[in-house]
Amino acid sequence: MASVGKANTFWNRLLQLSSDSGVSLQAQLRQQLVSAILARQLPEGSALPSSRELAATLGIARNTVILAFQQLVEERFLETKPRRGYFVVEQLPSAAKPGSAQARAIGAAAPEDAGEGIPDWGARLPDMTGRRAIVKPTEWQNYPYPFIYGQFDPALFPTADWHRRLARMLAHGAGRAGDPRLGFGPDRPR
Fold it and tell me: What positions belong to coiled-coil segments (predicted)?
C-alpha cells in the first residue's frame, strides 16, 4: 500500500492542474505530460497509470484523462499496448526532441484555449509529411467493402457542399464546434 501512496504523490507533484487557470483541464494535463516527457521526468518506455487511476489521483473526470491520452497517442508521445495500458514512446518524434522549436510549440497550451477562442489550426494539426502514404489498390472504390483507412466514398459524402460551407465559415472567422454554418448543431439544415 505504501507504493500506491508514493505513486499518487509522484503524479500529484508532477501534474499540477488548476480549474481557475482559464485553460481546460484536458489541455493542462496534455501540456504537463508533454513537458514531463520532454524533460525526461517520464523516461521513454515508462508506463502511465490507468486513466481511471490517474483521474482519481488528480480528482478529475476519467474522460478528461482519456482524451488527453488519446491526443498524445496521435502526437506520438504515448503509445498503447493491448491489455497493458499507456506508455511513453520508446523513440520520440524527431521534431519533439527536447529544445526544438516544435517541442516548445507542442508543449504550449492547446491553440483553441489561447486568444479569442478561435483555433489556430496551423499550430494544432500535426505535420503529415513524415507519415507513410496509404497503400491502396487502384480500383479500391469498386470493391464490395473497401476497408481502407482514411478513405471515404465520395458518393456518400457531400464534398462540394462541405467545401462551400467550410469556405464560408472560414471567411467569417468562425471556428467553434457546433457552428450551424457547418451544418452541425441545433440549427442544422434538414
Answer: none
